[in-house]
């Protein structure tokens, strides 16, 4: 298990993601720990993260899956390249597709555990599966397509 | 175009959704206006809703799509039944699947426009397509499966 989450190695000038950026003061601070096979993350929803009484908001769960799956893809890609995370040239990804199946309602008041695995490691696309567990019960399952990009410092089309 | 968003008709005791609940003080307050053919919603992301510099967080966009597509499904189902929204017996849905394709980065600093349409109106499942536009450019496209349930006042399995 890596000692530090992969998000700690994201470059400072782009680490403002609401989901996982270390420089977003209002964000969720999702953290991904990669052990060479599985990306693991835990998150306890805040009281306001409800869908309906007693259950977690699906949009919050989609957000956790998004950042954690992208983090897992990046960590695994460094691993596949035989390089330490954060070394140059930067390896980074953005989300191409996020496909989330809500198997059953996810209860509030417990720590959620996310486990992500690499289904396909391509040169351009990395496919990641992710399950969300509440008290050892899988409540949500997802597949995410991470698209490798040279940098997250995009230029606007109009620039 | 309906004068009131469908979310105004959600029952008070369950209207605490982080995405669209009128009784969630910290939530996003997503609103869906149904005109008999298209569900429309607008949302201007808050400054903290960034993915990377200048662009909107994908998890926020997934959240907007989730609540707006479910709202569209509910409004359309009342319409299909020939009933005014909010009349008894309640028609409500939860999200079964959310499949979001990010076509291009979505810029910060502009109002986003969501348009949702009914692809399939079933007794148990309603399939909704949704596009997100930023300055008339479609940046995200999604398909959501809304599952009809008798009520959002779920009981926990352990109860």
UniProtKB/TrEMBL annotation, chains A, B:
Its main location: membrane. Residues 54-139 form the Thioesterase domain. GO terms for cellular component: cytoplasm; membrane. One of its GO terms (biological process) is fatty acid metabolic process. Keywords: Apoptosis, Cell membrane, Cell projection, Cytoplasm, Fatty acid metabolism, Hydrolase, Lipid metabolism, Membrane, Transit peptide. CDD domains: PaaI_thioesterase. The keyword Protease does not apply. GO terms for molecular function: hydrolase activity. Transmembrane segments: none annotated. Its EC number is 3.1.2.2. It holds the Pfam family 4HBT. InterPro entries: HotDog_dom_sf (IPR029069), THEM4/THEM5_acyl-CoA_thioest (IPR052365), Thioestr_dom (IPR006683). It catalyses: decanoyl-CoA + H2O = decanoate + CoA + H(+); octanoyl-CoA + H2O = octanoate + CoA + H(+); hexadecanoyl-CoA + H2O = hexadecanoate + CoA + H(+); tetradecanoyl-CoA + H2O = tetradecanoate + CoA + H(+). It is found in: Cell projection, Ruffle membrane; Cytoplasm; Membrane. It comes from the Bacteria. It is a peripheral membrane protein. Belongs to the THEM4/THEM5 thioesterase family. This is Acyl-coenzyme A thioesterase THEM4. It comes from Phototrophicus methaneseepsis.
């Amino acid at each position: 298990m890596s000692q530090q989450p992969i998000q700690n190695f994201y470059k400072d000038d782009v680490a403002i993601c609401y989901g996982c950026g270390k420089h977003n003061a209002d964000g969720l601070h999702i953290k991904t720990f990669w052990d060479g096979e599985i990306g693991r993350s835990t998150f306890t929803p805040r009281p306001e993260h409800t869908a309906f009484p007693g259950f977690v908001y699906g949009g919050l769960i989609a957000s956790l899956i998004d950042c954690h799956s992208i983090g897992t893809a990046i960590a695994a890609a460094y691993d596949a390249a035989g390089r330490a995370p954060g070394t140059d040239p930067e390896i980074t990804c953005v989300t191409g597709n996020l496909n989330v199946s809500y198997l059953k309602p996810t209860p509030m008041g417990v720590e959620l555990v996310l486990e992500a695995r690499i289904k396909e490691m391509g040169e351009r696309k990395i496919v990641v599966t992710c399950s969300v567990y509440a008290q050892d019960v899988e409540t949500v399952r997802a597949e995410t397509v991470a698209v490798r990009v040279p940098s997250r410092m995009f230029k606007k089309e109009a620039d």
